[in-house]
Design a protein that fits this description.
The chain has helices spanning 18-26, 41-51, 57-68, 70-76, 92-100, 114-127, 169-183, 199-205, 212-228, 287-296, and strands spanning 7-10, 31-32, 82-86, 106-111, 132-137, 155-159, 188-194, 237-244, 249-256, 260-264, 267-271, 276-283, 299-306, 312-319. Helix content is 35%, strand content 27%.
Length: 320
Amino acid sequence: MIGVLREFVDLEPKPDDFRTEILSGLSTTPKTSSAKFFYDDIGSHLFEQICNLDEYYPTRTECEILVEYASKIRTILPVGATVIEFGSGGTRKIKLLSDALPTIKSYVPIDISRGYLLQTATTYARDNPSIEVRAICADFTNVIELDDILDNSPRVGFFPGSTIGNFTYSEALKFLRYAAKTLGPGNFLIIGVDLEKDIEKLISAYDDKLGVTAAFNLNILTRINYELAATFALDLFRHKVLYNNKLSRIEMHLESIREHEVRVDDCYFNFDIGETIHTESSHKYTIDNFIHLANDGGFSVLDVLSDPDKLFSVHILQVS
């Protein structure tokens, strides 16, 4: 037992090789960097600020849905459940779900970041002493065998925040199929899904007037400079956001404003004017498209909750 946690299980997930993945991404055409590398200490702090911006509707709207439909959520989901959060972040949304499901027996946050997981799980356990908290350090995109860790209480998966949108279609399908195996037949999944909408509203959500998202995007270059002894000059890049209509996704890029060369570790990379590093994609769905994906992933759809403006949706699924 660590602190007030009932249990901390370390499945020893393999850490991402930052150097290898960054060098590989910069060697491709077009150049890329994985969005998972945004979240160092500075990046995580900046993202918390983004979530509170007027333009960034997803967090605010999803929280409103969880509050507005709390009674419906209670009606659909079982009493005495174990809530399993895939890729647990802060405690804001699990607190809202706890309010909607006051009969939760236990909470199992799963994340690959040991330090952050331990901190947030301990905080939640301290604030909710009636709920057993068992944190699991693991890669949530894989199947996780829980039968030796949990009892036979009904399981409710929780995947808020529209993180599913950061996956390609094939990656999202793989996640859903693995999550279905982790949860088991007849169990449930609550998942947040961002919806297609006016392009200007989408663009402004990822390119706010205060420049917080731009700082968040550029911070990846600061991290590469610090960790890989690189020579990125941040003033030679600008934050660029576009909507890829063919793939129904927002794309964030870092665009070079002039020709120059950058050293990363012992490798050199040339940038042309207008050349970009593609740093993040955020796919947007129609409700019907996501229902089709969920069905293919091994789930049936019990209900779809949304705000009046149809900006965001929360899907309640059951493993088929």
